[in-house]
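Checklist before submission:
- one chain only
- standard amino acids only
- sequence pasted in full

Submission:
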Amino acid sequence: MIDKDKIERTETTKSTHTIDERDQETFRDFVQLCNNCAACELSLQRQNVVVWRGNIKAPLMIIGEGPGAEEDQQGIPFVGRSGQLLDQILNAWEIGEDDFHICNIVKCRPPGNRAPKPEEAKKCRPLLTRQFNLVRPKVILLMGATAYKYFTHDDRGITKVRGAWIEKAGFWIMPTFHPAYVLRDPRRKNDLWQDIGATRKKLAELKLLRELIT
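Returned file contents:
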């Protein structure tokens, strides 16, 4: 296993994801569409619609369940404690902001940070589908049971499926624990570390990122 504190860099070959003005304009239109959405009751209590962070075009899409309080306030996903943990692990594996696109199953905060209801996820799914098609990732990291359930339509628990690759329609899907769950149960941190490491290796295997030498 890679030492978390010692990752030797190979020659820098920055990921190249072409973003032209047309891509940017199309994505701005998409964000505006999200901002105007009132498809479900979550829109009534939100401070901000939480759409994305990272790169518009990225080989890796990271999907969580829904915004929390800090995300709702800032309008950016994964900026609270769980986001800080996620960023630490991504950085350790040298997965930079050019390489990922982070979003959630729903784009508005559920009250009390509860899991999104099935009807809320269903209402938001067309936006997630459109976002997926704009980003065009090859690898998808599903953070937690809710993201796994609503993305795959599989009701199995996350402990039963995490760490195992799912190949579907030319995409590679890795289910793992949500960082918020890891903060509640630190014993799972190494599992999250290993799953993100496997994701990094898959990106290199697909020649979407350079190899790491350990």
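Reviewer check: Residues 187 and 197 are 17 Å apart (CA to CA).
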